[in-house]
């Protein structure tokens, strides 16, 4: 069919408020808004001011009342344990209500924060919805994060309660969560009132008296008592959740998501961007700890009345490179959303795609890739093996849903390899030079979005309006800074080329090299350090560390490098994929003392580079090249 994209996008541009008011009709409201957009509210304006609503009501209750009570809402498919558990909308609501009652009895109420530190189990989604039901603000922390990272989030969010589990499961190993959680609470200045712990059979844990509560026991008691907790109306502008993203200083940034605009935006994307209908099966193969898990495992599909899959496993090794096709076939998935890394892994294990024909993929219509740059070779491989459209798209934790995509629901546009598509309604994307002037089409520059940001985007950072302005709005007045570099072609397609700051993208996980440098610098033998992101065929990018040792250190460099790697794994977690440290005599710097990380990265990646005009001592770059070559890097 001919695409309706240009007509819809132009309609939004002509009258943004009319566009969002019409989109908001798909959501049930307790009371209407005073203004669709109030430019005088908040940092840059707020959406649907004065309206009241509840996200859990829209995700569950209205579907139960409206004829979907017996439709499957959530499928927990654990490739690691070999189990599948399904919940209808009525059953999911019953579980959520029982947990909500537990929270309420523990004194959790409107505006209180609850940290959810969980593996990929159905209870993670249930916990999010239970918080939303009584308008507590949830903050999901990825279960792979180390105690230090969890502690910083405890101190920032100040949760009344933490919901966790005894363990998480990885291929071939069990990760004990309880010791990590206990250590994080010990490290944090803020102390929660209690922890609710889901005991998993793979590794049970001891519970502390008068502090830890057995999740299953507590929920079963409420269920048996016939507990009923109604949804609490909240303002559309009240926070639904906080999700932390890496900050360039190592201090995490608490992205705030509101209730009203978030629901309107996500509901609109499910049909128009992802081309999925209510009742169909949608699968986002992500983690609930990341924004994709929030938007497209839990909230988006349930708001839309879909069946959503929450998958515990990996694209390979659980048990093989056919696991994704098994899930698609078994559950009649129509659309899969995953990171390009997953497909690089599958392609690496099964280059000829021999697993694909073993499964019935007749219901499968579209593959969506995001989280990092999707290289054309991977896209072409997936197109060829799956024989469906492969749609790259681009967005951020801050936006909550795609900024650019090739919109399946509006009718696909021609695919351009290397481009994550065209801007979606709400996003007036421009490319500016460092002085803030717009550059010609096809020219690389800073990718920005003209304010105001659309419904569903972050209104601010948690308790940090000034930091929000400084991080996103000050550099290019009137625009939101994405901190990505890219260009727009003559047809309006965006090409995102690189990060403009020190956030690197490891297998779809945005991680701060600055935070890693803080860990390296904490080693007693390290005088100076730098971390850069270098290209990796599997993960997109991986960190590479450089250390300069303190004068007089007589220990063997290799031992120190191993200790530094272990330190990063302990403080940030295995998710950082931090494996290589190179000891050098000195770091290349400008005369003003700035470390030339970009040049170091180019040498490691064998990219062309020119001698920086401001370099203090050009000989240092020869030393670095030699040190990297000795380790087989950049040769």
From TrEMBL:
It comes from the Bacteria. Residues 5-59 form the Acetyl-coenzyme A synthetase N-terminal domain. Residues 516-594 form the AMP-binding enzyme C-terminal domain. CDD domains: PrpE. Residues 64-452 form the AMP-dependent synthetase/ligase domain. Belongs to the ATP-dependent AMP-binding enzyme family. This is Propionyl-CoA synthetase. It comes from Mesorhizobium salmacidum.
């Amino acid at each position: 069919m001919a695409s309706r994209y240009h007509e819809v996008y132009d309609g939004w541009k002509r009258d943004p408020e009319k566009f969002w008011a019409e989109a908001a009709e798909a959501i049930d409201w307790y009371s209407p808004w005073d203004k669709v957009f109030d430019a005088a509210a908040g940092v840059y304006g707020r959406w649907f001011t004065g309206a009241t609503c509840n996200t859990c009501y829209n995700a569950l209750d209205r579907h139960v009342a409206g004829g979907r009570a017996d439709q499957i809402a959530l499928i927990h498919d654990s490739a690691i344990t070999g189990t599948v558990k399904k919940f209808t909308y009525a059953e999911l609501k019953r579980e959520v209500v029982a947990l909500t009652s537990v929270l309420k009895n523990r004194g959790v109420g409107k505006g209180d924060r609850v940290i959810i530190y969980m593996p990929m189990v159905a209870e993670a989604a249930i916990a999010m919805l239970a918080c939303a039901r009584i308008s507590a603000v949830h903050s999901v922390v990825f279960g792979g994060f180390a105690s230090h990272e969890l502690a910083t989030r405890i101190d920032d969010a100040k949760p009344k309660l933490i919901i966790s589990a005894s363990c998480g499961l990885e291929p071939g190993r069990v990760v004990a969560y309880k010791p990590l959680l206990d250590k994080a609470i010990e490290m944090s200045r803020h102390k929660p009132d209690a922890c609710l712990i889901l005991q998993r059979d793979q590794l049970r844990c001891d519970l502390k008296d008068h502090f830890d509560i057995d999740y299953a026991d507590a929920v079963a008691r409420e269920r048996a008592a016939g507990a009923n907790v109604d949804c609490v109306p909240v303002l559309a502008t009240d926070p639904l959740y906080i999700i932390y993203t890496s900050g360039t200083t190592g201090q995490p940034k608490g992205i705030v998501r509101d209730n009203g605009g978030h629901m309107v935006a996500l509901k609109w994307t499910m049909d128009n961007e992802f081309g999925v209908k209510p009742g169909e099966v949608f699968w986002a193969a992500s983690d609930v700890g990341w924004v994709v898990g929030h938007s497209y495992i839990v909230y988006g599909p349930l708001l839309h009345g879909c069946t959503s899959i929450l998958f515990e496993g990996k694209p390979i090794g659980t048990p093989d490179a056919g696991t994704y096709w098994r899930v698609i076939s078994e559950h009649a998935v129509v659309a899969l959303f995953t990171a390009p890394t997953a497909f690089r892994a599958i392609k690496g294990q099964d280059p000829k795609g021999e697993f694909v024909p073993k499964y019935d993929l007749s219901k499968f219509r579209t593959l969506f890739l995001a989280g990092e740059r999707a290289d054309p070779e991977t896209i072409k491989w997936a197109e060829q093996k799956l024989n469906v459209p492969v749609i790259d798209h681009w967005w951020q934790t801050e936006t909550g849903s795609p900024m650019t995509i090739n919109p399946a629901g509006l009718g696909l546009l021609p695919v351009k390899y290397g481009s994550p598509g065209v801007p979606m309604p709400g996003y007036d994307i421009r490319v500016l030079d460092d002085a803030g002037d717009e550059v010609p089409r096809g020219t690389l520059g800073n990718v920005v979005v003209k304010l105001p940001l659309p419904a569903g985007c972050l209104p601010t950072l948690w308790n940090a309006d000034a930091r929000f302005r400084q991080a996103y709005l000050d550099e290019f007045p009137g625009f939101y800074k994405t901190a990505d570099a890219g260009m727009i072609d003559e047809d309006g397609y965006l090409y995102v080329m690189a990060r403009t700051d020190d956030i690197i993208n490891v297998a779809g996980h945005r991680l701060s090299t600055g935070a890693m440098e803080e860990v390296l610098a904490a080693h007693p033998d390290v005088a100076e350090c730098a971390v850069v992101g270098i290209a990796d065929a599997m993960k997109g990018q991986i960190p590479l560390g450089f250390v300069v040792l303190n004068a007089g250190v007589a220990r063997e460099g290799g031992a120190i490098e191993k200790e530094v790697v272990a330190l990063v794994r302990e403080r940030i977690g295995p998710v950082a994929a931090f494996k290589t440290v190179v000891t050098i005599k000195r770091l290349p710097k400008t005369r003003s003392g700035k470390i030339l990380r970009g040049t170091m990265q180019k040498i490691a990646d064998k990219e062309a580079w020119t001698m920086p005009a401001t370099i203090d001592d050009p000989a240092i770059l020869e030393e670095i090249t030699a040190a990297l070559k000795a380790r087989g890097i950049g040769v």
